[in-house]
Amino acid sequence: MSDKDCYLSNNLLEVTYKKSKEISDSDRFNMHLHDFYELFYFLEGDVTYYIEGHAYELEKNTLLIMNNRELHKPIFNQDIPYKRIVIHFFPWVLSKYDSYDFNLLECFENRKEAHHNKIYDQDQKIFNYFKKITKYAEQKTEESEIMIETIFVQLLILINKLFTQKEKNEGSTIKYNERILDIITYINNNINKSLSLDFLSDRFYLNKSYLSHIFKKHTGVSIIHYIHYKKIMTAKRLLLDDNSCSEVSSQLNFGDYSTFYRAFKKEVGISPQEYQQKRSAIENYQFFND
Prior knowledge:
Elements: E1 6-9, E2 13-20, E3 37-44, E4 47-51, E5 54-57, E6 62-66, E7 72-76, E8 82-89, H1 106-109, E9 118-120, H2 125-139, H3 144-163, E10 174-175, H4 178-189, H5 197-203, H6 208-219, H7 223-240, H8 245-251, H9 257-268, H10 272-289
Antiparallel strand pairs: 1-2, 2-8, 3-6, 3-8, 4-5, 4-7, 5-10, 6-9
Helix pairs in contact: 2-3, 7-9
């Protein structure tokens, strides 16, 4: 595998292979979510990766799996070279591989959020698939795209097999705060309610200032920002399920539609109606071109 940066984007996935000799501002991104699922393969550096209150200490040949509901962010312990391979993909593009007996997205969807995100690739079987994908991404030959797709499906099959093994490789490397995980679970299970700092401090018998402090310490984001972000991400999913914009605003207790409209546009960059129309157009295009 060459040491040159590599990038590929097509209708199936987005692949980035990158080595940062120095940690840049673009590497130090804020805690965030996105519409797509993510495979993050760590090769070099000194990084602690935060996912919904869990802190994963990374070592070479570590894979992290993240769905579109899990806030995440890397923390750089030292400013040393940082090398990784990242694959982003939308879950619905794999619908043609759906099977009654096997779910390619099992490891993303059938687990508690921020649990079992980490798989240690001891034998580098996962890495070998990543190498093949980046090789075809670099070559850009006539057969590259179909080879990338077939290799990617095989990669997901392997990851699911490793994920479902009884013995998890992450137990001794997870650091977490049980109270914070309880709060995160409560927020995610009640995201349709009107949640506030006052309400949560009463619900969990914690002083407001202390609750704000420990939540930010263990997640990297304020509790109000977390609730806001989760509501917007939930709104995006509800909009894709053909709910009207006013129905989504009401379901998620934004107070009134104008508040929802402003919050959505500020976070996503476009209005709820524009998002719904744009995503519908993309899905229709992919359906007719499969």
